[in-house]
Design a protein that fits this description.
InterPro entries: bZIP, bZIP_sf. Helices cover 83% and strands 0% of the residues. The protein is mostly helical. It is rod-shaped and about 120 Å long.
Length: 138
């Protein structure tokens, strides 16, 4: 009888060893799969970072271009406003005497208005001087 329990215990140890070996193999395979999956995720994230950095650079360039264009347009508006004020204040050449006299009469009480109001008023009168140039240059 004493042989039987040792045989069954030896068989149990053998079964336990096989179970542990199988468990170790499955764990090793799962670890390998996890490392591969993690590597793919890292590569995917690095690719996304690279694409987003490129997009950010493109947007920075576009923003700089738009700021530059905005500056040019503001400068053109300032120059146009100065030119229009210069035409209003300049000596009369006799060509547009009717318009100049109307301008003088209507501008007599405008001393307290802002410069922007003068430009708006000039635009609303329909004065053709210089309007074609501004549209052609844009």
């Amino acid at each position: 009888m004493s042989a039987s329990p040792t045989t069954s215990q030896d068989g149990g140890d053998l079964d336990d060893a096989l179970v542990q070996e199988d468990k170790r193999r499955r764990n090793t395979a799962a670890s390998a799969r996890f490392r591969i999956k993690k590597k793919h995720k890292v590569l995917s994230l690095e690719k996304s970072v690279s694409e987003l950095e490129g997009r950010a650079e493109d947007l920075e360039r576009e923003a700089a271009d738009l700021r530059r264009e905005n500056g040019w347009l503001k400068e053109m508006l300032i120059m146009k406003g100065r030119r229009n004020r210069g035409l209003d204040q300049g000596p009369s050449t006799g060509q547009d005497d009717d318009e100049d006299s109307d301008d003088e009469g209507s501008r007599a009480g405008e001393g307290s208005k802002k410069d922007g109001d003068d430009e708006d008023k000039q635009e609303s009168k329909g004065d053709p001087k210089g309007k074609g140039k501004a549209k052609d240059s844009s």
